[in-house]
């Protein structure tokens, strides 16, 4: 491989490496978003479970 | 715009980018003949110049969205402008790196301060890199959106200066390809390969922009949801 060929290959590989790095960073971001969605779903589920217990109390106060 | 529509657009852009860039690569390495003076190393042109033009396009897009924000006061343009500047900086890094590699193989140096084109692009890149420092030094809200928009608009003034510098300067070693005599500067096969690579690079930037924007919007909606639930 000549020197020119090495430099040309390096230029193209740098671009490929940056795009791949972006994909990896984005994969981490997606896994974080998935974790946050799961946390919020769990939070919402707990809210729904505790909500019926709170309803009668409110009615008693109102009555 | 709905997230599902953005996703289908992202898929179409990603497919177009993959196809065009692969075609551009094949054309650049197997179809285009070696340049008379530059020889094999001239093939960096098919990746370096499209990346540089894509960086300019991203900064223009960011400025356009910033102008829309200031004009309409619609806050959704803030995220769009920010994402475009983000993409512009990524392509700016690639422009500087691929340009340095080309400079090393053609001129024997990684960088030269005597070239106005290079220095002006570096100034443009640093200006937009500072955008993030400004943005994250202010609390989120309309004030931050307006400041970021004004900054993004100021930066876009540097683009024509950077683009014209090479044509106005004297005693340059950086080549001028796109001038009135483009027919004698580039053969038909070279021009076609360049256009394919440029289209591919723009499609790649568009795909990354749509994906990044979707991610940032989901992030913002999750933050709102967390606040509502807490």
What report would you give on this structure?
The complex is a heterodimer of chains A (63) and B (230). Chain A is mostly helical. Helices cover 95% and strands 0% of the residues of chain A. Chain A has one helix spanning 3-62. Chain B is mainly alpha-helical. Chain B has one domain. Helices cover 78% and strands 0% of the residues of chain B. Chain B is built from eight helices and no strands. The A-B interface holds A 2-5, 7-8, 10-12, 14-15, 18-19, 22, 26, 29-30, 33, 36-37, 40, 43-44, 47 and B 25, 39-41, 43-44, 47-48, 51, 90, 93-94, 97-98, 101-102, 104-105, 204, 208, 211-212, 215, 218-219, 222, 225-226, 229-230.
Q: Main attributes?
A:
heterodimer, A: 63 residues, mainly alpha, 1 helix, B: mainly alpha, 8 helices, 0% strand, globular
What topology emerges from the helices and strands here?
The complex is a heterodimer of chains A (63) and B (230).
Chain A: H1 3-62
Chain B: H1 3-30, H2 45-72, H3 76-107, H4 116-135, H5 142-156, H6 158-168, H7 182-185, H8 188-229
Helix pairs in contact in B: 1-8, 2-3, 2-5, 2-8, 3-4, 3-5, 3-8, 4-5, 4-6
Concise description?
Chain A is mostly helical. In chain A, 95% of the residues lie in helices and 0% in strands.
Gap between N and C termini of chain B = 28 Å
Number of domains of chain B: 1
The biggest beta sheet of chain A reads: none
Low-confidence blocks of residues of chain B: none
Which class do the helix and strand fractions of chain A yield?
Answer: mainly alpha
Supply the number of helical segments of chain A. Answer: 1
Q: What is the H-and-E element order of chain B?
A: HHHHHHHH
Order of helices and strands of chain A: H
Name the helicity range of chain B: over 70%
Which outline of chain B best applies? Answer: globular
């Amino acid at each position: 491989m000549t020197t020119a060929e090495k430099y040309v290959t390096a230029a193209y590989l740098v671009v490929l490496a940056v795009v791949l790095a972006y994909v990896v960073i984005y994969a981490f971001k997606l896994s974080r978003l998935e974790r946050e969605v799961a946390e919020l779903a769990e939070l919402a589920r707990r809210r729904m479970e505790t909500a019926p217990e709170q309803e009668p109390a409110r009615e008693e106060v109102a009555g | 715009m709905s997230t599902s529509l953005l996703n289908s657009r992202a898929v179409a852009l990603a497919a177009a980018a993959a196809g065009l860039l692969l075609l551009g690569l094949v054309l650049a390495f197997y179809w285009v003949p070696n340049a008379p003076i530059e020889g094999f190393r001239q093939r960096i042109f098919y990746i370096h110049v499209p990346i540089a033009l894509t960086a300019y396009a991203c900064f223009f897009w960011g400025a356009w969205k910033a102008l829309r924000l200031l004009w309409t006061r619609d806050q959704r343009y803030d995220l769009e402008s920010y994402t475009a500047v983000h993409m512009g900086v990524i392509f700016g890094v690639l422009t500087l790196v691929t340009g340095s590699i080309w400079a090393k193989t053609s001129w024997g140096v990684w960088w030269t301060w005597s070239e106005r084109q290079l220095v002006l692009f570096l100034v443009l890149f640093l200006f937009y890199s500072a955008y993030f420092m400004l943005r994250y030094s202010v609390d989120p809200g309309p004030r931050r959106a307006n400041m970021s928009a004004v900054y993004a608009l100021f930066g876009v003034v540097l683009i024509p200066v950077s683009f014209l510098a090479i044509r106005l300067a004297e005693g340059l070693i950086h080549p001028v390809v796109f001038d009135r005599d483009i027919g004698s500067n580039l053969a038909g096969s070279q021009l076609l390969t360049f256009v394919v690579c440029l289209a591919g690079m723009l499609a790649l930037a568009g795909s990354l922009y749509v994906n990044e924007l979707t991610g940032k919007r989901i992030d913002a909606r999750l933050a709102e949801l967390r606040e509502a639930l807490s």
